[in-house]
Specification:
The chain is of the alpha+beta class. It contains seven helices and five strands; from the N terminus they run H-H-E-E-H-H-H-E-E-H-H-E. The chain has two domains: about 60 residues, no CATH class; about 90 residues, no CATH class. It has a three-stranded antiparallel sheet with strand order 4-3-5. A two-stranded antiparallel ribbon has the order 1-2. The chain is globular, with a radius of gyration of 16 Å. It starts with a helix and ends with a strand.
């Protein structure tokens, strides 16, 4: 018995497919209903608070064609000065999946800060797998990202070094 892909799509079952050099992933992962990056979480708060804070539309900033929300004006102003530091790496796509050649959305509630950069993961299992070899996984993700985004740099290019000692796992799921 053969089941078509349309049946899976109609049932809401999404399957990741391998990324290829012909694929492009130049935009940021955004909330499908609002179009806001990080599902509306304040990107600066990942670095300054024990858990990310929800942003509000009153403190919105548009960067690279995507709206970003902030918890306060100070965080928005910090982001405006150096967005590539605070924006999630790889456009918010899941780091571990990207390292394996798959493009999937990262979950803004499942993250790590490594070498002063924000990495998102699809699941806690993916984040746990990342801990086994963060430098290797980041390097592999960087190679796949570069193949999908020729000529793109800055926010998409993580720092050259990453060690588990420099990482902070997210609380929660």
């Amino acid at each position: 018995m053969m089941i078509s892909l349309q049946v899976f799509a109609a049932a809401g079952i999404l399957c990741a497919s391998p990324a290829s050099a012909g694929d492009t992933a130049t935009s940021f992962v955004t909330d499908p209903l609002t179009g806001v990056a990080l599902d509306g979480y304040d990107p600066v708060s990942y670095f300054t608070e024990p858990a990310p804070l929800p942003g509000v539309p009153d403190f919105e900033y548009d960067w690279q064609g995507v709206p970003w929300y902030f918890a306060n004006a100070a965080n928005r102003d910090v982001f405006i000065r150096t967005p590539e530091i605070y924006a999630p790496q790889f456009g918010g796509h899941a780091t571990t999946g990207l390292a394996g050649g798959y493009l999937s959305d990262g979950n803004p509630q499942i993250f790590m800060i490594v070498a002063k950069r924000l990495y998102l993961f699809y699941s806690t299992a993916n984040r746990d797998a990342f801990l086994s070899a963060p430098g290797k996984i980041i390097a592999s993700a960087r190679q796949h990202w570069a193949a999908m985004n020729p000529g793109q740099s800055a926010q998409a290019t993580p720092p050259a070094t990453a060690t588990p000692a420099a990482s902070t796992p997210a609380p929660g799921p």
